[in-house]
């Protein structure tokens, strides 16, 4: 919050801290806000494309410096374990599906859970896949019963130790999701992305790529001491506009362009 002081010019005070081109027009600046909605999440169609952002050509690519890039295979979900010590915190997340489809869920546990194994700078499934497991995952081993949580397979949804806070929602390639969850209890929250299970059956073709989903994600915890908003104002926003900020790449020969 910036105050102009007693009788001071607010615009002049703002210019001491913010470049005038970033000051909204209704505060005397030159940044037009007529295309922005009133409150809620900023739509990604309003984001500045990566190639136009300062430093986009350097190693400080804003997408790579802010988001974590990873992949999930069928039967081997990606899970992010988030300890919450104080009730009243707000968990926020933002993720974009780059390739194929996946389901997103949020769990809560009263137990302390160790974070998944970290590989190549990204949080990955607890079990690191070897070549045999990768092939098994692609085939889809329908006879194998997967646990609710890969990072704590002994916990079962429905017990007093594990609760499904956000039901699974299917996201498709190109989808973007901004969401938030009010943490009414202290404990462990687990964000999970997994490739949807398919019906039992055999196919004449073997497509390994369809059993792997690539995505990028970011999350943040807003401490209860710093959160002064209304719980009713928290909302999730889903869009399919990630392509508006991602660098444009030519389609692979033989691959139809998404419309």
UniProtKB/TrEMBL annotation:
This is GOLD domain-containing protein. GO terms for cellular component: cytoplasm. Residues 64-221 form the GOLD domain. Signal peptide: none annotated. It comes from the Eukaryota. It comes from Caenorhabditis japonica.
């Amino acid at each position: 919050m910036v105050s102009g002081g007693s009788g001071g010019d607010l615009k002049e005070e703002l210019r001491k801290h913010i470049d005038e081109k970033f000051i909204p027009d209704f505060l005397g600046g030159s940044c037009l806000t007529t295309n922005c909605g009133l409150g809620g999440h900023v739509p990604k169609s309003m984001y500045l494309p990566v190639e136009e952002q300062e430093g986009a050509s350097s190693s400080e690519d804003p997408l790579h410096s802010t988001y974590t890039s990873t992949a999930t295979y069928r039967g081997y979900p990606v899970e992010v374990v988030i300890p919450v010590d104080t009730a009243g915190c707000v968990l926020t997340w933002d993720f974009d599906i780059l390739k194929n489809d996946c389901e997103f869920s949020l769990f809560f546990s009263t137990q302390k859970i160790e974070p998944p194994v970290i590989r190549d700078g990204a949080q990955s499934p607890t079990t690191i896949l070897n070549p045999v497991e990768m092939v098994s995952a692609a085939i889809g081993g329908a006879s194998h019963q997967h646990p609710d949580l890969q990072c704590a397979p002994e916990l079962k949804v429905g017990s007093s130790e594990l609760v499904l806070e956000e039901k699974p929602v299917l996201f498709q390639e190109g989808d973007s999701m901004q969401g938030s969850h009010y943490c009414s209890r202290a404990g462990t929250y687990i964000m999970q992305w997994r490739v949807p299970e398919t019906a039992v059956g055999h196919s004449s073709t073997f497509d390994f790529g369809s059993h792997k989903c690539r995505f990028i994600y970011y999350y943040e915890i807003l401490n209860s001491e710093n959160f002064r908003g209304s719980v009713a104002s928290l909302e999730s926003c889903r869009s399919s506009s990630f392509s508006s900020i991602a660098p444009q790449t030519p389609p692979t020969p033989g691959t139809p362009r998404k419309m």
